[in-house]
Amino acid sequence: MRAGIVARAEAAYLGLAMGDALGATVEFMTPREIRGKFGIHKDICGGGWLYLKRGQVTDDTTMSLALGEAILADGAVTALGAAQAFDAWMRTKPIDIGNTVRRNLIAFRKTGVPEAPPSEHDAGNGAAMRVLPVALATLGRDEAAVRAAVRAQAHVTHHNPQSDAAAEFLALAVQDAIRGAALRDLYRGRIRPLVVAQPQFAYRSKRRENPSGWIVETMQAVLQSLLDTGSFEECLIDVVNRGGDADTTGAIAGMLAGALYGPDGLPFRWLKALDRDVMVACENQARRLVGLPA
Q: How many domains in the chain?
């Protein structure tokens, strides 16, 4: 495994955690409220509606880490392994958990069936926010295998075609960026085809502010921020200052921008502010996941 690939994998995981920690401070605030309190929110400082400590992360990062450990234990992405990992994670009483995740994990406890039934109402962003470990574990595999692995973990809680489309796109785009694709390559090879195939993800009609947990609004905000900025820091500051579900838009933008801009793009002040144990866990898991045999 080339050192550059490992470094970008680590940067993607750290980017996810940084975006989560940065965005959680302003989650559920409107852009106007953010401007009134912070001017521009640009530092990892904790607080927010969850009263976080400085550098603390939420379910976006902790669910990803739980999934990654399950993949490493099984040597593959499996629906049952993911469901068991998420169930164990929920039993730790995490600081935050989405309603769709909770509902379908409770159903798993009752039935033992790791796949939630298809639902038009489960088009939230919970499966997409935690897809990074799958992208890293399946690096080097053919696209069909990557898509199947993404759906295996996604359907534990979010069995929905819009959720699937976004999560599959993210996994493949992250992989392309880790292998060295530039932003223009991601646009041509992944972003434009996503919008052609799934027109609901079109993102240029208006600026997406105050994005909800609906995966379409999440992806519109993320894609606008990614394409309209030129650095990791600019991208994350832009997306979290839109407010709304800012920890998740921050996490998703962070994994993409981390892979795209690499370790040199990560602001040192954010690395220093991030919870030390989380930082080490993300780096270690990234290295182990990309080392899995293809």
A: 1
Cα separation values, 279 from 12, 129, 178, Å: 12, 17, 19
* 255 touches 174 (CB < 8 A): yes
Alpha-carbon gap, residue 25 to 40, rounded angstroms = 12
> Residues 73-108: pLDDT tens digits?
999 999 999 999 999 999 999 999 999 999 999 999
Q: What is the three-class DSSP state of 268?
A: helix
Joined tokens for residue 157: 């809680």
CATH at residue 128: 1.10.4080.10
Q: What is the pTM of this model?
A: 0.97
Residue 68 belongs to what domain range?
A: 3-290
How many other C-beta atoms can be found within 10 angstroms of the C-beta atom of residue 53? 11
Q: Per residue in 28-52, pLDDT tens?
A: 999 999 999 999 999 999 999 999 9
CA angle at residue 239 from 233 to 245, to 5 degrees?
A: 135
Q: Which two tokens stand for residue 33?
A: 């409220």
